[in-house]
Amino acid sequence: MNSILLVDDDEYVINGLLKHIPWQDMGVNIVGTAADGLEGLNKFLELRPDFVITDIYMPVMDGFQLTEEIHAIDPSVPIVILSGYDDLANARKAVSSGVHHFLLKPPSIAEIEFVVREVVQLLNESQEHEDLLASYLQQQEIVRRSMKDAFFRDLISTRYRADELPGKRIAFMGLPEVSTVQALTLSLVRPDISARREERDWQLLRFGTGNIIREMLSSALSATPMMTAEVLEYSDQDFVVIFLADPESDYSQEIILEMSASILDNILQYMKLSVLAGLGTVRSGYHQLMDSYLESRSSVEIAEMNEWNRVYAHEASNKSEPGKSVSMDAVRHLHDAVFQKQWQQSNDLWMVLRNELINGSVSLPLCKGVCSGIASAFWTASLTPDMQAETAGPALEDLLLQLNRCGSTRQLLEWMDDSVARMIGQINDDQAGKKSHALVDKVIKEYIEKCYHENISLEQIAANLHVNRNYLSQLFKRVTGEPFVTYFNKYRIRKAIELIGTGKYMVYEISERVGFQNSTYFSQVFKSITGYSPSEYDR
Predict the structure, then answer these.
(1) Residue 267 DSSP one-character state
(2) Boundaries of each HTH araC/xylS-type domain copy (predicted)?
């Protein structure tokens, strides 16, 4: 049985490889794992595995350096690179370094099986040539899909000239040599979830959404042979559908719009998820796909400020929605008052503008646009001068997300009344010097003292309190004299000392009870604060 060493600094990757890949069925035995290149080299010298699977970017020693060190010892050892960095420079470097395979994270189980079986075959040299060919043919479609994914990701993020396109690669992937391109971006509106345990539920929803998109496209495009579509899972919330069509075909854009709208309806009906959808214009050639994609992203931004679950085509994205216009003078005067920090005047001007919005039959999308600008102005003006660079922080994103969830003009304006009053109140508290201690006291009493045994962070606390993380960090240190992490760890260690005094618990139990998931790290923190290890403290 062949032996293998796994090297990756991400324990989730290692655990996934150990749990989900049928190594025994492939005649492979995992002899060891390592968390960085140097540890991997030491394990190789100690265990002498038949081959190695390694990540590229790791601390101490990266995957390429590890490959060079191993091949200096034994040039015949096969190396498989597993990396989340998709760029041609890494691929070329992998080949020049004597790497046998270059897999992109996250690879499918089938891809890993294929590579491992191929390496095992190379090592044993006992399998028939026909078996290798059959295995390759079975996996060829998987390889093509992986190549297509990498190809289109590259096209929407990097601008190419037509003569720079890889013609042979395009032909191998089964794509048309010449094609029009059009990008549709579908951005899922993720429900409010904060518990880590719910991440699996989200991934299941995302997986089901992807299946709906592919099934509907397959069904709809079966009637239009001159057109195909590729689905790119671009991020945790975004899908990019790339429509390819024969330049000589005369299909109508209505077909694309109807198809896209039908996809949104089914996602909402079966997955109960809202979607922001933007459609770019038709472009001539793969090298212009980036332009259509950027147009689709721009249209998604329009969708955020208007009606969800509707396709916004780029041509129409700048057209005004029906409804009465708003006095720009009133909006401008309010913005001026906010940035001049004239808070009473700002409140009075808001009430004037509010009455105009609610009595003038202004459309909801236009209302949201006006209110978003006002809310952002208040939020920005509330920061201290040295915090102006932080205006894109999560607190502002949360504020605008709440605003966009309002389903009617009246609901939106009621929300704005509360928000404006709250922000002006917070600003006045800051000016009076009252808020700082109150906010820090709340962090200490409501989070540190009550939740010290949980895995919480300052970023989560800031989000819950609707304040900027960096602002809260600076405020906490100014009031307590210590950074948040230092204060938090000291409090946890005080609680740990109380548990040690009872004599009832082992070190690892105390570690878990005071919020440390790793007992080794707990012991290091304990000693750095008390000067003793947990086991020495009660002697």
Answers:
(1) I
(2) 442-539
State pLDDT tens for residues 45-54. Answer: 999 998 999 9
Query: Same domain, yes or no, for 183 and 291?
Result: yes
Dihedral sign from CA coordinates of 372, 374, 377, 382: negative
Rounded to the nearest angstrom, the gap between the alpha carbon of residue 133 and the centroid of all alpha carbons in its chain is 38
- Count the neighbouring beta carbons within 10 Å of the beta carbon of residue 520: 11
C-alpha distances out from residue 75 to 99, 100, 123, 128, Å: 11, 12, 13, 25
Report the DSSP pairing between strands 101-104 and 227-233. unpaired
Residue type, 535: S
Residues 264 and 344 grouped into a single domain: no
**Taking a C-beta distance cutoff of 8 angstroms, is the pair 299, 312 a contact?**
yes
CA dihedral 64, 65, 67, 69 (to 10 degrees): 170
Buried b (16+ CB within 10 A) or exposed e, 14-30: beebeeebebeebebeb
**Residues 337 and 373 reside in one and the same domain:** yes
**DSSP letters along 327-387, please?**
-HHHHHHHHHHHHTT-HHHHHHHHHHHHHHHHHTT--HHHHHHHHHHHHHHHHHHTS-GGG
Domain annotation covers residue 278: yes
Given 432, 461, 494, the domain boundary residue is 432
Helices 63-73 and 37-47 pack at an angle, to 10 degrees, of 30
The DSSP bridge pattern shows strands 180-188 and 283-284 to be antiparallel
Beta strand spans in 308-450 (E): 311-313
- Domain residues for the domain of 216 are 174-316
CB-CB neighbours of 162 under 10 Å: 11
Examine the domain organization and report whether 234 and 249 are in the same domain.
yes
CATH code assigned at 22 = 3.40.50.2300
**What is the dihedral sign for C-alpha 16, 17, 18, 19?**
positive
Q: How far apart are CA 17 and CA 182, in angstroms?
A: 37
pLDDT (tens digit, 9 = 90+) per residue, 206-247?
999 999 999 999 999 988 888 999 999 998 889 999 999 999
Whether residues 121 and 6 fall in one domain = yes
The structure tokens 């689905």 sit at 231
Q: How far apart are CA 350 and CA 384, in angstroms?
A: 23
Res. 396 pLDDT band, cuts 50 70 90? confident
Strand pairing of 180-188 and 51-54? Answer: unpaired
Q: Residue 314 and residue 302: Cα distance in Å, rounded? A: 9
Find how far residue 528's CA is from the centre of its chain: 35
**DSSP labels, 473-512:** HHHHHHHHSS-HHHHHHHHHHHHHHHHHHHT---HHHHHH
- What phi, psi does 32 have (nearest 5°)? 180, 165
Question: Are residues 468 and 383 in contact, defined by beta-carbon separation less than 8 angstroms?
Answer: yes
What value does the mean pLDDT take over residues 169-177? Answer: 90
